Amino acid sequence: MTTTFESQRAALADVVAIPVTPFAEDGTVDQDAHRALLRRLLDAGVTTLTPNGNTGEYYALTPEERRLVTELTLDEVRDRAAVLVGVGHDVPTAVASARHAAELGAVMIMVHQPVHPYVSQSGWVDYHRAIASAVPGLGVVPYIRNAQLPGARLAELADHCPNVVGVKYAVPDATRFAAFARDAGLDRFVWVAGLAEPYAPSYFSAGATGFTSGLVNVAPAVSLNMIEALRAGDYPAAMKVWEQIRRFEELRAANGSADNVTVVKEALASLGLCRRDVRPPSRTLPEGERAEVAAIAAGWSA
Fold first, then answer.
1. DSSP assignment of 215-262, as one string?
2. pLDDT (average), residues 139-164
3. Single pTM value for the model
4. What percentage of the chain reaches a pLDDT higher than 70?
């Protein structure tokens, strides 16, 4: 019987939360805080989670820590949400991570944009094909940040790998997204706005039906309000949420997104939910900038 991946497709057409990875005072993964933050998301009604995403500091974690984060997430979530595990690095590492996720009960993997400095278009297809073919029972979601990649290459990948069911598109250009999605097949994939709430309204207008979120760690209700407005086609309501989160996201995006994770963790720390610690090459916020983040987070939790 051919797998249709309908449940995975439905899970992507939603707020796709990217949980942070909290660290303990000794620098290790704080497992208790991690579980508590996951429960907070689940209790708020978030139903799709991506452990080992960029907001989870994927590239700053050791291989053992990435496995631990996957295990903690799947154990805590159980059947309460769909889990989309981030995988990447070299092909054998990505395949091993994907198989590990499958063994634990994950339903999908997100393949991080290759960070190799020399990425050819056909090589991009080969890389994703090798990973997707190794786990034919999992839904596969390429994370696309490469503005040079044409939509035809994604269609080529899916011709070989029918388990490529969704796309996390994170090129900051709504016009390019609209063209890419139509060249690849607008109805063939679930399109996830991979640049979170700030880009969600414009990307939804061009065909996206889900968006990723780091902000959801701090204020789940805010992110859920936006997806409800977008699903209803109520763009004025969605833009009211956009205005509400604008400054927070500006702080995250400043200086080439240098403080993308830092601002989220600072907000969580201000609410007493985890430590503010991040790992290099990220840095904690200077003392003088913390008050503004705390004020924003307090306003959402009021």
1. GGGT-HHHHHHHHHHHHTT-HHHHHHHHHHHHHHHHHHHHHHHTTHHH
2. 98
3. 0.96
4. 99
